[in-house]
Design a protein that fits this description.
126 residues; mainly alpha; 71% helix
Length: 126
């Protein structure tokens, strides 16, 4: 039972990571310092897709699944198992990746624009 809980917690951590990857830049519009957490998340997330770096959460989930007597994730990994073909059709994978990239770029542009607006405000209202 403990290993099954670890599987569930790892899946949750994976989903939270992906959610933060998509919306973390927008959160930084409000909480500006969080951009420093978002940058490595984006770097890691994109490198897993572009370079094929394996995610340690996938290793952890596979280990916990094995300990719990469950089948491991397919060699294609977490996203293919839980999202591609489940949440969106496999044929939409390119579009989904483009949408994620668009969200990140848009959020970072907004972060910069809002930062410039805030830096031009007077400290004391007249």
């Amino acid at each position: 039972m403990g290993y099954r809980l670890l599987v569930d917690l790892t899946v949750l951590a994976h989903f939270l990571f992906l959610a933060y990857l998509v919306v973390g830049g927008f959160l930084a519009w409000r909480w500006r310092r969080t951009i420093w957490f978002h940058i490595p998340v984006v770097a890691w997330g994109f490198s897993t897709v572009l370079i094929g770096i394996d995610c340690p959460l996938t290793y952890l989930e596979n280990w916990a699944r094995e300990q719990a007597g469950m089948a491991g994730l397919p060699s294609s990994g977490f996203i293919d198992h839980y999202l591609t073909g489940v949440i969106y059709p496999e044929s939409a994978l390119g579009l989904v990746r483009l949408l994620v990239l668009t969200c990140v770029v848009t959020s970072w542009i907004g972060y910069v624009v809002l930062g410039q607006r805030h830096s031009h405000r007077p400290l004391m209202p007249k």
